[in-house]
Amino acid sequence: MKGKPGSLYIHIPFCAKKCIYCDFFSIPFDETRAVRYMDSAVKELEMTRGRASALDTIYIGGGTPTTMPVRSLVMLVRKIKGSFEVADKAEITIEANPGTIDREKARALHEAGINRFSIGAQSFDDGQLRLLGRIHTSEETVSAIDAVRSAGVSNISIDLIYGIPGQTLDGWLHTVDEAVGLSPAHISAYELTPERGTPLYELISQGRIAKPDEESIVQMYYSAMEKLEAEGYGHYEISNFARPGFECGHNLNYWNRGEYIGIGAGAHGFIGGIRTRNICDVDKYIDATEVGRLPVEESSEISREDALKEAVFLGLRKMEGLNMTEIRQAFGVDIAAAAGELVDEGLLLSEGESLRLTRRGVVVSNTVIAELFERMEL
Ligand code: SF4
Description:
Elements: E1 7-12, E2 14-15, E3 27-28, H1 31-48, E4 55-62, H2 70-83, E5 86-96, H3 103-112, E6 116-122, H4 126-132, H5 138-150, E7 155-162, H6 169-181, E8 186-191, H7 199-205, H8 214-230, E9 234-237, E10 240-242, H9 249-255, E11 261-263, E12 268-271, E13 274-278, H10 282-290, E14 296-301, H11 304-317, E15 322-323, H12 324-331, H13 335-344, E16 348-351, E17 354-357, H14 359-362, H15 365-375
Parallel strand pairs: 1-4, 1-11, 2-3, 4-5, 5-6, 6-7, 7-8
Antiparallel strand pairs: 8-10, 9-10, 12-13, 13-14, 15-17, 16-17
Helix pairs in contact: 1-2, 1-10, 2-3, 3-5, 6-8
Iron/sulfur cluster binds next to loops.
């Protein structure tokens, strides 16, 4: 069926404990509420059935989905398969944090059809894990990866964070080395961002801790890039690296402005040029689904200008860049002309139909993209 999304995201907002840097929608795990929540997610799935074509990607994210009892997660995957057609080779990911996954759980999830695990390792320095408020040690990360692998899963991704207060370049490279030593198929490396309203932001504002300086952070990024590329991980998106063929299909759909269905409290969806956001409060979300109401809180049609900005912003996140011909055909905008000076300054590279960030441009991508917007005739 053409013209319907082939991707589904399900948000599970529960975590064992809140990390100090976290501004995702997550709340402490409480079994009774979590079980009611899962029933509501299933109701929403049933209300949404028929809105997708065969699903190529399913992503169960959070929060920490693996704080949920395994039977609830298995039931959820069965309900997805009962509500939607799922392609034979669909990529089905679950986010799992060390300390919440063992071999038995991993095997049950794999048997249910989950074939990709994204593990929140963040650091292989236990002091930094404690500082971030993570519930696990680096040894538990190694055990979690062993458990998932021994359950028969080969598509494993590891998330890492750099720019942690007190982190040195050598300390970061140790984390990258440890991650590579575990031989995952995919590694994501994100800069720690102190978001307003988080305890981390407060600690930094009060001068009690400090992030490494800008130059060190840039060095951390470059050195990870070099190390991971040398180890055979292709750099395919600003923060993402994969062995050939293991790029995350679900996220590539976001960066390609593909459509997707979002299920769960706070989940976003994008269907037919309309972006939606579900109710962010778990109890109100449950109330809505219990009376058979779709729990959508916000819904907005994307204007031509916003669609163009999204296409440029998301397209440039990919290291292969965006296709200028496609942009011209879709929006009638000559992006090559707008990019001229940024190309001359060595921040963007224009090659044939593609426009992409250079090595210099990638570390200041937000500024480059903002400048490109200013020069574009919208
Ligand atoms: S585990 Fe992830 S979602 Fe949960 S509190 Fe920590 S950073 Fe946030």
